[in-house]
Design a protein that fits this description.
single chain, 246 residues, mainly beta, 5-stranded antiparallel sheet, 21 strands, 0% helix
Length: 246
């Protein structure tokens, strides 16, 4: 990143390194103009999935022409070492500031922060789930994760048990309202389970060696995914993903 003129505006460029066979990082090279458009910022990269796109895309934040607000979330399809023309994430972006995208693969969910929707104050963290090749309704992550200050850079561990975010909320070492000063916070996430128990309805005796099915439903009631397990005992705990219907 570099300062632009004598103002506080900062233009950034996204670079990439490749992990070599000897577990070392190769040289850094700047991504092409599809991502790093000259004279405009490109920052906060994240790899994920997008509706109607096969394979991975690179999400990033930019103020390039075509943005709804000050900064928007954009994405470019990744073709091995090349990138396609960037596309504005119009279903998500607002007329405010939309920043810090993070795509969580296990739940097919995009998390981001914005000032363009109703918030508790400053930037709030929102999410949208990718279902049936389209985004679900955008939802605020609530008062536990969001605060009256700025809450950005939300990420989750692959097992969905812990989240991290940056904030200048109460409890931070620096309480400045400026965008420069944040602390890292973590939150333990409670993942619900559905415990299924099999028994004989007449006698009440436990049943063993059964097959159990957990069916995830789309919003219209059709089957999205089915999990089938052979259970040696009489009960089994199915892990659930928040926001889904079963």
């Amino acid at each position: 990143c570099s300062f632009v003129g004598k103002t506080v505006n900062i233009n950034c460029e996204i670079y990439r390194r490749t992990l070599q066979s000897d577990s070392t990082w190769g040289p850094a090279y700047k991504l092409p103009a599809q991502v790093n458009l000259p004279e405009y910022t490109a920052t906060e990269p994240c790899v994920g999935r997008a509706p109607g796109v096969e394979g991975d895309v690179l999400y990033f934040v930019s103020d390039r022409p075509g943005s709804k607000g000050e900064r928007d979330i954009w994405y470019s399809k990744i073709n091995q070492d090349s990138f396609e023309t960037a596309v504005n994430l119009t279903d998500i972006n607002t007329t405010g500031d939309d920043v810090t995208p993070f795509f969580h693969y296990p739940a097919s969910t995009l998390y981001f922060s914005t000032t363009g929707m109703r918030s508790l104050g400053g930037f709030d963290i929102y999410k949208a789930m990718l279902r049936n090749n389209q985004w679900t309704e955008i939802g605020n992550m609530g008062a536990v994760l969001n605060s009256g200050a700025n809450d950005v850079y939300y990420t989750m561990t692959p097992d969905s048990k812990m989240a991290f975010l940056s904030s200048n909320r109460n409890g931070a070492q620096n309480l400045s309202e400026e965008a420069c000063c944040y602390d890292i916070f973590k939150a333990d996430l409670v993942r619900p389970e559905m415990v299924a128990i099999t028994f004989n309805k007449t006698t009440g005796d436990s049943l063993f060696q059964t097959s159990m099915r957990l069916i995830e439903l789309n919003d219209d009631g059709t089957v999205a995914e089915e999990i089938k397990v052979n259970v040696p005992g009489s009960h089994f705990a199915f892990p659930l993903q928040p926001g889904k219907k079963y």
